[in-house]
Amino acid sequence: MRRGNIKKMVDRKITVVQMLPELISGGVERGTLEIGKYLVEQEHRSIIVSGGGRMVAQLEEEGSQHIRWPHIGEKSPRALKYVLPLRKLLIREKVDILHLRSRLPAWIGYLAWKSIPEFVRPGLVTTVHGFHSVNKYSAIMTKGDKIIAVSDAIADHIIKDYSIDKNKISCIYRGFDENTFDPESVSEDRLNILKQAWDLKDTGEPVILLPGRFTRLKGHDLFFRSLSKIKYLPWKAICPGDFDKSSYTDDMVDFIKKSGMEEKIKFVGHCTDMPAAFLLSDVVVSASVKPEACSRVILEAQAMGKPIIASAHGGSLETVLDRRTGWLVTPCDAASLADALQEAISDKILRSSLGDNGRKWVSENFTTQKMCEKTLDIYLELVSENRRPSGVLPF
Q: β-strand 45-50 against 123-128: which pairing, if any?
């Protein structure tokens, strides 16, 4: 159904509830806020239920209502106490769409939704954001009236592993914000603030960026092993992202010291200005050990005109054009990553060409605007199909 036709069939403003565990950081969280902001801009009503976090202030500034349930993301029996309050919320606020984005809150949401008589239930949307273990617990994400997959790889995973009708699934890629991730919008002051915070000198050495929480899944150990193979070359590596004390981080710090790379690699913690961070870099790395569904880092780096080096699996096969916008390397292969890094830091002209191509590629295919428009279309399609009589509540 065409977008204009859906809008004509739904001639009222709708209320959407999105649920997720918390609002601290991450792609799922940012996507939730982006949809909430877009709904408000379109004069619909946005309610977000989570355990809270540092992104709540932004959510509320952008016009969404936040409901904090502290244990909504906990894998414990006490999370079940939210089923009845959620049922009451869905009824009281005459919610049109319940959008579930994570497995545990999805179970709470589904139980509350299922307890409402069928003819007055809101439409149920689920988004599958990753390659979860295939089991009954994960299967909750396939229970939506409509299922959003964030890449074709995820859509194939749902169809293959859960035998879901492909007509229930819509592929909607994550997007980048064109206003935020615009090279022309980043001032020199912002760049200087970040340079000072990171103690980054103008040495002319290429800067390699690997953003992401410091975990095994993000491939930091693979990244450092690759860098050790080219440590004789001039470069600086910056790793923005939450850095928690653990045996893994201890092992990585120890490896860096033993490899003599202490002066070449910096851990800079959480970064609040990623557009500036990308601009300060010369090449951006996504070294995920397991397939990612659709990496925002990959899209945003290309949006800022930077070539990307990514593991050749999952959604990166759909978002990176090998040797046209960056490099796709063999997953979990330090030598393959090192070869790409060596070529990237040694060829400034090639980096520039790939970066220009990448910006055009993602601007044409992977924007937040496109993501939000397609998601709202799904909401409106469900509302148009909903036979609930106006004003009828299940009492």
A: unpaired
First to last CA, the chain: 34
The C-alpha atoms of residue 77 and residue 61 are separated, in whole angstroms, by: 33
Q: Are 146 and 123 in contact, with CB atoms under 8 Å apart?
A: yes
CATH number belonging to domain 3-175+368-385: 3.40.50.2000
Superfamily (CATH) of domain 183-365:
Glycogen Phosphorylase B; (3.40.50.2000)
Residue with the two structure tokens 């989570």: 50
What Cα–Cα distance (Å) separates residue 325 from each residue in 159, 177, 178, 298, 362? 30, 19, 18, 10, 10
Pairing mode, strands 169-171 and 146-149: parallel
Q: Which residue has the tokens 């410091």?
A: 214
Sign of CA dihedral 267, 358, 55, 174: negative
Q: Domain ranges in the chain? A: 3-175+368-385, 183-365
pTM of the predicted structure, to 2 decimals: 0.86
Sequence-ordered strand ranges (E) for 188-321 = 207-209, 236-240, 265-269, 283-286, 308-311
pLDDT tens profile 165-217: 999 999 999 999 999 999 999 999 999 999 999 999 888 999 999 999 888 88
Q: Left if phi > 0, otherwise alpha if psi is -120 to 50, otherwise beta: which for 219?
A: left
